[in-house]
Amino acid sequence: MTKTKPNDLSVGDMAERAGVAVSTLHYYESEGLIESWRTPANHRRYDRKELRRVAIIRIAQTLGISLAEIREVLKGLPRDRPLRATDWEDASQLWAEVLDQRIELMKRLRNTLDHCIGCGCLSLDKCPLYNADDTLAQNGPGARRWTGSAKERAKAP
């Protein structure tokens, strides 16, 4: 007979401790992001180590990282032993470039947006966002000045 271990949390305790709804835990589990086990009475239990995974998921989601990307990082973390700092360092490398790109985009948006607020587009010849005759269409769809590569942005008129 399997008994509850001292570090195990019921689904309600886990939800309260993690700051999420019980349904969120169920969803994360169905997506393979966290794991639980069942008691002989079929009660769901979580090892306390799953709290760290939920924290990483929530932070990553706040930063706009998709669940698919989160799953890839969590999949690389061992479950058969306690995590080491090197495990987290290796995992974080997968997001480093993506986060750096997002930081750059946010800085550019912040530095340009204040120019646009209240502008009224009275000086289109000086506007950093103006795309006369849709010349940036040749570089691809969307906001090319924001999402394109540095090379694409440099050749933009």
Q: What this model shows, in words?
A:
There is one protein chain. This protein is mainly α. Helices cover 52% and strands 6% of the residues. The termini are far apart. 10% of the residues are buried. The mean pLDDT is 81.
Beta strand count: 3
Helix/strand order, N-terminal first: EHHEEHHHHH
How would you state the average pLDDT, rounded? 81
Q: Work out the radius of gyration.
A: 23 Å
Helical percentage: 40-55%
Provide the β-strand percentage band: 5-15%
Low-confidence stretches: none
For the termini, the CA-CA separation is: 72 Å
How is the biggest beta sheet arranged? Answer: 3 strands, antiparallel
Overall, the morphology is: elongated
The structural class is mainly alpha
Number of helices: 7
Biggest β-sheet: strands ordered side by side in the sheet: 1-3-2
Please give the structural blueprint.
Blueprint: E1 8-10, H1 11-18, H2 22-30, E2 37-38, E3 44-47, H3 50-62, H4 67-75, H5 85-116, H6 144-147, H7 150-155
What's the short story on this structure?
The chain is mainly α and 157 residues long.
Give me some keywords for this one:
single chain; 52% helix; 157 residues; 3 strands; 6% strand; elongated; mainly alpha; 3-stranded antiparallel sheet
